[in-house]
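anyone seen this seq b4? input:
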Amino acid sequence: MKDYRKAKKTIEVSVGDSVRIIRKLQELSQNQLASLTAIPQSTISAIENNRVNLGVERAKVLASALNCRPAVLVFPGWELEKAAA
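predicted toks r here
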């Protein structure tokens, strides 16, 4: 394991991209996700296109429907860095 190298980040993923990617991995359309969440399809589209902020409550609802944690949607590019003690 001494040859381990951390993977390089090659693309930036926005909150909207994160929602879209996970929705597509679940093989859901925007209309199906709207039915599961009671969030209008137009709002889901706006979130995915970064025209509307996701917000905490929407993140919780979407995460529940997408079987993931809200942080996966809200912080797609977040990386934990080791802080000096």
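The chain has one domain: 15-74. The radius of gyration is 15 Å. kinda curious what u guys think
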